Amino acid sequence: TFTVTNSGSFSASAMGGSGLSAPFAFKGGSYPGTGGTCTTALAASASCTVVVVYIPTGTGTQSATMAIGYNDGANVQSATRNVQGT
Q1: How far apart are CA 16 and CA 2, in angstroms?
Q2: Would you state the pLDDT for residue 35?
Q3: In the predicted model, is pLDDT for residue 58 greater than 90?
Q4: How far is CA 48 from the centre of its chain?
Q5: How far apart are CA 73 and CA 19, in angstroms?
Q6: Which of 2, 11, 27, 59 would bridge 33 by S-S if both were Cys, CB 3.0 to 4.6 A apart?
Q7: How far apart are CA 23 and CA 27, in angstroms?
């Protein structure tokens, strides 16, 4: 479970998640993942959660980059976080 925080002074809109590929996925198959609380908007100074699952098909370390895209009121932005499983 990841916590997404809007530390800016404006609401983020048009939020959505991308970038995950097997063996990682949003729990249940789509953003924000089953049990996640993020929607398409996040108020200034607010937080929400995104739920990711790791379902390995082999051994070893695997990684991906999750991206949360949003509009900050002026431009399209993207926040990323590396995820890793062993």
Answers
A1: 14
A2: 97
A3: no
A4: 10
A5: 23
A6: 27
A7: 12
Burial (CB < 10 A; 0-12, 13-18, 19+), residue 37, is middle
Torsions phi, psi for 2 (to 5 deg): -110, 140
Given a contact cutoff of 8 angstroms between Cβ atoms, the answer to whether 3 and 47 are in contact is yes
CB burial of 54-78 (b: ≥16 within 10 Å; e: otherwise) equals eeeeeeeebebebebbbbeeeeeee
The per-residue pLDDT for range 18-50, each reduced to its tens digit, is: 999 999 999 999 999 999 999 999 999 999 999
CA–CA distance, 39 with 24 (Å, rounded to integer): 20
- What average pLDDT does this structure show over 50-71? 95
For residue 22, with 0-12 CB atoms within 10 Å meaning exposed, 13-18 middle and 19 or more buried, which class applies?
exposed
Query: Smallest Cα–Cα separation from 48: which of 4, 13, 1, 79?
Result: 4
